[in-house]
From TrEMBL:
InterPro entries named among the record's database cross-references: Acyl_CoA_acyltransferase, Bact_Acetyltransf, GNAT_dom
Keywords from the named record: Acyltransferase, Transferase
Name used for this protein in its record: Acetyltransferase (GNAT) family protein
Gene3D superfamilies: 3.40.630.30
Amino acid sequence: MAAVVRLAVPGEAERLDAALEAPDGVYGLLLSRQTSGECALLVAEVGGRPVGAGLLRWAPRDAVVRERFGDLPEISNLQVHPDEQGQGHGTALVRAACARAAAGGHRRVGIGVGDDNPDAARLYLRLGFA
Ligand SMILES: CC(C)(COP(=O)(O)OP(=O)(O)OC[C@H]1O[C@@H](n2cnc3c(N)ncnc32)[C@H](O)[C@@H]1OP(=O)(O)O)[C@@H](O)C(=O)NCCC(=O)NCCS
């Protein structure tokens, strides 16, 4: 079933920690960053149940990236529950983040992936990231 992607809302941090099996407090921290305007926290849901989440930061975290690319928005903290991977939810989250960035007037979006994560890198390459 295709996921619906929406913005996280105040008060749901604990529910996200539990549903996505994140350590306690992770989504509270990410939600506080959304509240401060630093980023948008996107939640992918299937039938009202969170199956994944990701951040769209309005500026890169890393000073080297910022120096090279300026204040381009950056996708980070992408996570789909292990039982739900491979069903298009990660793709839906990345597309929703890109649409949100475009709506904010941004023509480029950054994404970072470790050399030790070729599976995720393959997804980003397929979605058009270089
Ligand atoms: C990377 C991740 C967000 C992708 O979400 P997803 O819902 O599985 O992705 P989709 O179903 O939209 O796309 C599947 C693609 O994702 C990639 N992928 C990465 N890890 C995967 C996994 N464990 N299972 C399935 N696909 C995975 C593959 O490229 C796959 O493409 P393929 O069908 O050609 O193999 C998810 O697998 C995940 O949470 N992984 C662990 C955390 C992580 O690595 N986050 C990214 C940090 S940069």
